[in-house]
Amino acid sequence: MTQLPALTDKKLGLVIDLDTCVGCHACVVSCKGWNTENYGAPLSDQDAYGADPSGTFLNRVHSYEITPKDAPAQVVHFPKSCLHCEDAPCVTVCPTGASYKRVEDGIVLVNEDACIGCGLCAWACPYGAREMDQEEKVMKKCTLCVDRIYNENLPEEDRQPACVRTCPAGARHFGDFNDPASNVSTLVAERGGMDLMAEQGTKPVNKYLPPRPKTDAQPEPEIDILAPLLAPIASDSKGFLGWLDRTLDKLPGA
Amino acid sequence: MHPAPSIIVFTVLSGLGFGLLAFLGLNMPDVSGWVLFVFFAVGYGLAGAGLLASTFHLGHPERAMLAFTQWKTSWLSREGILSVACLVVLGLYALLAVFFDTKLGWLGALGSVLAVATVFATSMIYGQLKTVPRWNHWTTPALFLSLSIGGGALLASKSEFAGLVLLFAAALQIYAYYDGDTRFKARGHSLNSATGLDTGPMRLFEAPHTGSNYLMKEMIHQIGRKHAQKLRLIGMGFGLILPAILLLFAHVGHVLVVPIILSHLAGMFVLRWLFFAEAEHVVGLYYGKHG
Amino acid sequence: MAQPVLETSPPVSDEVRKTTCYMCACRCGINVHLKKDADGNNRVAYIEGNRDHPVNKGVLCAKGSAGIMQVTAPSRLKAPLKRVGERGEGKFEEISWDEALDLATEWLAPLRDKAPEKLAFFTGRDQSQSFTSLFAQAYGTPNYAAHGGFCSVNMAAAGIYTMGGAFWEFGQPDWDRTKLFMLFGVAEDHDSNPIKMGLGKLKERGAKVIGVNPIRSGYNAIADEWVGITPGTDGLLILSLVHLLMSAGKIDFDYLANYTNAACLVNSDPDSPDYGLILKDDEGRALVMDRAEKRPRCFDKPDVQPDLTAVWENNGITHKPVFHLMLDRYLDKKYAPEAIADQVGISATRIRAIAAEIARVAFDEAIELDQPWTDFRGNKHDKMIGRPVAFHAMRGISAHSNGFQTCRSLHMLQIILGAVETPGGFRFKPPYPKPATAHPKPHSKVTPGAPLDGPHLGYPQGPGDLALDADGNPIRIDKAFSWENPLSAHGMMHMVIANAHAGDPYKIDTLFMYMANMAWNSSMNTAGTIKMLTDKDENGDYVIPRFIYSDAYSSETVAYADLILPDTTYLERHDCISLLDRPICEADAVADAIRWPVIEPDRNVRGFQSVLCELGARLNLPGFVDGEGNQKYADYADYITNHIRRPGIGPLAGFRNADGTGGGRGEANPDQLDAYIENGGFWMEHVPEEASYYKPWNKGYQEWAVAKGFFDAEQPYLFQLYVEPLRRMQAAAEGVGEIQPPEHLRARLREAMDPLPIWTEPFGEQVSHEDYPLHALTQRPMAMYHSWGSQNAWLRQIHGRNPMYVPTKVWEANGFAEGDWAKVSSPHGSITVPVAHMAALNSETIWTWNAIGKRKGAWALDKDAPEATKGFLLNHLISDLLPPKEDGMRYSNSDPVTGQAAWFDLRVRVEKVSAPTEAQPSFPVLPDLGVGQ
Ligand SMILES: Nc1nc2c(c(=O)[nH]1)N[C@H]1C(S)=C(S)[C@@H](COP(=O)(O)OP(=O)(O)OC[C@H]3O[C@@H](n4cnc5c(=O)[nH]c(N)nc54)[C@H](O)[C@@H]3O)O[C@H]1N2
Ligand SMILES: Nc1nc2c(c(=O)[nH]1)N[C@H]1C(S)=C(S)[C@@H](COP(=O)(O)OP(=O)(O)OC[C@H]3O[C@@H](n4cnc5c(=O)[nH]c(N)nc54)[C@H](O)[C@@H]3O)O[C@H]1N2
Ligand code: SF4
Ligand code: SF4
Ligand code: SF4
Ligand code: SF4
Ligand code: SF4
Ligand SMILES: [Mo]
């Protein structure tokens, strides 16, 4: 099973908009909640109320600071979960066939019943998208909410990943990249969707939309064109009132 | 990478064991009876202890049988199959050789090939990982193989050959360090490429969690440069150069070989520890490391 | 091996119950998924947002999803507790509810008959203020308020006095139409999810976002333009924008003339006793000059044409329109960008560019809706004109000692643009708009054994409305509505413990608090507060003799109380988010909501409001007992259903009348709560289309508002650019009138009570800038709510400790490296804490996340929890009092108008030190209350 399918029927994945993500961690926790109750083993926590709490999460939000040469520093919030790569190295390294990429939709999954917990797939993933659960000793990763997106017990509109459904800013989009007319394909085309660590050759399905250029990028904005807009009418209130009277008198009906 | 003791023990011991077995399969040294038995016992002991140690690393060793299924793509699976094949083939060979005094040359040769292939497969588990540029290079299998062959020769009392191979390994190791030290950058991995953002220098502002996680513990082990340099010298000195000099220039008898083996083993543990401890995984970039 | 066959349609849960989140005060709708455990008990399995809910429309924040870990947290209190050791020792004995209520009654009943003011009842993060205040009113103490005074009363009061509503629950930007959005001083806000949803909408449309904030994180990180302002100077920046827009005539004259008091005539004769007051007719209605008739006429006459320019002379007294005063003030060169650029830390060119951008979008990109409407004068309009520029602000501008006037300035800026209640601008949420005059005035008349003479809190219109006794002394323990802070509309919870301890204005007997962590993160001078709670007098009695506290968890404050009333968690009780209180409406809809027990408590705890129902009855309080003296409301659910506030008006507006058809007004409906549950936990009704904008002046809206019961008669009004109640207070300070402020406050009142927005330097700036060169701030982390998120196993992994972020300049000057620690000192004290570098930060500012630091032993966390060893509170550096003036007088660290706590006035110094074993100061470990692991 660790052979990657040559083609998948659908290519499901996420588009994450870095121009919109405010770094609220909502997607992180809703993912934790959903996946603790659903697909496979619960996501465990260690030392939950202790001195060194840690736990399994399938989605984490980093924040980075960029210091462009000629502009004020910027902060970018950066959510990251499995990118469901087309050339998923995590799948091919797996000795047991537990890791696989689904033929029908390209979702990369771990069959927990077959996982020996060797950890090699996590080593093979450039993105840190796989975490070994310390309680169950099996590899956990984003399932693209495979148990939501087709789930007939959920209302149609809820058949989307938990993280997408919850994102307050609407920075996460889910869809089929094989369909050029899908929301995700359109966004990628319009906003220049990009790959993470393209040089690894993993061909991630998930795409990231870069932050739009900041308008404070130039330290001294050019206002020549706008300046006349705010040309003062008078230098004191008397002059101003005169101007106002003249203006109002010119209005129809005055 | 986190230098897990079980994996260090596994790779060092099994490398040595399969190295020795490779020589035994080629009838080197040319001994028989109980002496041969002891040699085989040592070979199997080392390889077996290594394999056993590796299972400590598994979360679910009870499912280990499944690991033999994915030979088409997985080096780990191949390693498992090859190691078992090697042990079975050479076991048969040893059985016939020790107890029936029948050395089937072709069977031994097949076993030797399997032993070398096993070591190669082990090395490829690391060598294939693009995520760890330091490993993802021909020097990784070359080193694993030469260390295994050198160590095997040492155990097989092929002193001079062992000395030469260990010297070669030392040279290879130096080159691996030299080239490996810059490979991460050379491959273009940076926080900018990791995030696809290229508008300026970047750094981690806040990690996703203030608590730690599996990735940080497993993948993001960093060792100070100075510390590493010292350990490199110690590891190569004790593991490769000292044994090589002694093997080549001193007359090695049954007595001297023991401290040489111990020195080699100690050095190997240091080198192997470093092999992991120095390996920078690209995921570290996301956590503000290797920048 | 073949690809495994997956069950892609597993059952999601056994049952979904819809209620309201309370992991923070935003009050989103949630679907609580329940599964039955082996014993058949319901267990919370998953929480998601309710798509139908007006607040969150399906989304949910990190805290909301983590609610599942809150209801299993080991820190939950288990039973009523009575203190047996000393305060702070944490020695308690579990008692029954009967014993607990007996004890409370024994303490409170005699007090009521003698001196009800000796009960100080303050409720912190209370979402039932219309109920808790009823209790306090019935008891008869003047000493009641919730937490608004230390939170953001500046924002609320400035908004109410200026335009009958403020940001947050009062209103919101027109997210669907605005083209330029400017955000001042917001990290997270109460409207957590709606702001994120709104920003998402703007981003989707490509509208421009400008973030004004010393720190570029969160919302400001995604802003298209960042204005990294120097803390405390926003008022200057805003007034400079006003200066530029006014000078250029880029203001909406029509809007100013018709909908604001810019045309109202102000007595401008310094010798007149009415100097500074607005000219009124005999019925007290403001007069404007009619441009056509050239004579003063009432502002609301159908054909009046209010004139912004004409002056009215009468009997030798000159009356000038407010607009003249505005021109005189704001055209002054001292507000020119060049004059203020250095102080605000923004270049003059950039300020000009922002003003130009605002003007361009407001006037060149104006929008018109084909929506006819009729104004309050009876004039018909066939269009709604929009100025698609919207503003929003919160504590970044309000939590400074100049916050009231800064908030006023911002409201003035939006008003002169005509961008309030017009398409694309700022919109009120029903039941707002509601002018200050339509709100109650504060009441404080105490009669032993009888209720107070009216509601405690409100909006004073002049000195006569202050809560002062015959000698001019404050009546309230927090000194709200006194000359120290006349317009303290939300009370001043942060002063209660200090004043009670000092016996100033008097000593109290019982402190009764609910849901406020006063012994830790919600106090300034935390160590001092702890000491005040434990101090004893010469007789060995506690200076604050009794302390009753209701919490749901083992917070730091629990250890200092004498009697603990353990509350349920939010999933285990009834609550009502009422229109009488702090509603959840949207600009397009009126709405309210409930909580109900979606799971049963597994401990001996009770909803606090239900406890008050019983305590009120035991104390025989009017309104809490029926005709026969029996308990009137069995519990809070009973109260919510059956309480009648005004004829036809109860706590919940939805599903009224026996048949559930009443919306807004109607008789009590015994099945009301079931109807809410059936409807997803809330009720909502849309604002009619023709009433959606211009609400204060829109006949359609006014009629609808009366029908819904927001008020009993239509009450259109003008926006108050010039706030007369402020002038009345100012006039008193100038010596006018009977009720006079004490001498030492005159000067500062004259300055602070300016009826037109003004900028003054924050009081915190008075310390030496050489000794304390930096500003220090806190921000709300989006994934953590004050102190109470730390007990949550998931959230504490995200924010388990907090570094002090310092800007590059400070980082380099101190030679800091990753992992370093620093001593941070203010005039009040010092802390030793981990530092981290942030470049996207105002170069004079350092900051940290708020309330991550925990006291050891609290919250059922391990005593070595990172929250206690590496996390820290900035509060140790913040004092409730300002440094002494020359005359030795120490004013409170708050806004002189409203008393709002000035958390962000803090100045500090940073020095590198070697790493201590843990963050300093460290307090003794709080003992385990038996609730822990
Ligand atoms: N340095 C600094 N300090 C600040 C601020 C700042 O910006 N900087 N901000 C200030 C502001 S604006 C505020 S509003 C305050 C907030 O400070 P607090 O009002 O003290 O807020 P919390 O820390 O959340 O404490 C509320 C208490 O309510 C308890 N609680 C939670 N749920 C329930 C429940 O269901 N029932 C009951 N009975 N109790 C419950 C919690 O356990 C906790 O003890 O902090 C202030 N402190
Ligand atoms: N997740 C979460 N949500 C919360 C809370 C919580 O604890 N956690 N608390 C709730 C409560 S009680 C409140 S009061 C609200 C408060 O919500 P906010 O008003 O967002 O309060 P703060 O987080 O204190 O953020 C204040 C912001 O003002 C900025 N600031 C400080 N001084 C200045 C200044 O002089 N000028 C400008 N322009 N900016 C300045 C700070 O950098 C910070 O970004 O949040 C509520 N929502
Ligand atoms: S929920 Fe949305 S806005 Fe929040 S961190 Fe995740 S992607 Fe970003
Ligand atoms: S992101 Fe990592 S885990 Fe996911 S498919 Fe790609 S390589 Fe595999
Ligand atoms: S940890 Fe499990 S899924 Fe990953 S490679 Fe090993 S067996 Fe495969
Ligand atoms: S798609 Fe599902 S599993 Fe993947 S990150 Fe989102 S919530 Fe988690
Ligand atoms: S913002 Fe989050 S915590 Fe607050 S009520 Fe909404 S979901 Fe709950
Ligand atoms: Mo607050």
Shape of chain C: globular
Q: Which structural class matches the secondary elements of chain C?
A: alpha/beta
CATH topology of the domain at 166-398 and 411-432 in chain C: Dimethylsulfoxide Reductase, domain 2
Structural class of chain B: mainly alpha
Task: Tell me what you see in this structure.
The complex is a heterotrimer of chains A (254), B (291) and C (933). By secondary structure, chain A is of the alpha+beta class. Chain A has a single domain (12-209), classed as Alpha-Beta Plaits, CATH 3.30.70.20. In chain A, 21% of the residues lie in helices and 17% in strands. In chain A, the strands form five sheets. In chain A, strands 10-1-11 form a three-stranded mixed sheet. In chain A, a hairpin with a 6-residue loop joins strand 6 and strand 7. Chain A starts with 11 loop residues before the first strand and ends with a helix. In chain A, 59% of the residues are buried. The model of chain A has no long low-confidence stretch (mean pLDDT 93). With 291 residues, chain B is mostly helical. Chain B has two domains: 1-128, no CATH class; 158-291, no CATH class. Chain B is 67% helix and 2% strand. Chain B is built from ten helices and one strand, in the order H-H-H-H-H-H-H-E-H-H-H. In chain B, helix 1 packs antiparallel against helix 4 and helix 9 packs antiparallel against helix 10. Among the domains of chain C are: 96-163 and 433-495 and 605-634, no CATH class; 166-398 and 411-432, Dimethylsulfoxide Reductase, domain 2; 722-755, no CATH class; 764-913, Barwin-like endoglucanases (Beta Barrel), CATH 2.40.40.20. Chain C is α/β, with parallel strands linked by helices. Chain C has 26 helices and 34 strands. In chain C, the strands form ten sheets. Chain C has a seven-stranded mixed sheet, with helices on both faces. Chain C has a six-stranded mixed sheet with strand order 30-32-31-34-29-33. In chain C, strand 18 and strand 19 form a beta hairpin. The chains are: A alpha+beta (254), B mainly alpha (291), C alpha/beta (933). The interface between A and C is large, with 92 and 101 residues. Bound molecules: ligand MGD (2 copies), iron/sulfur cluster (SF4) (5 copies) and molybdenum atom. The site of one iron/sulfur cluster (SF4) has 14 residues of chain A, from helix 1 and strand 5.
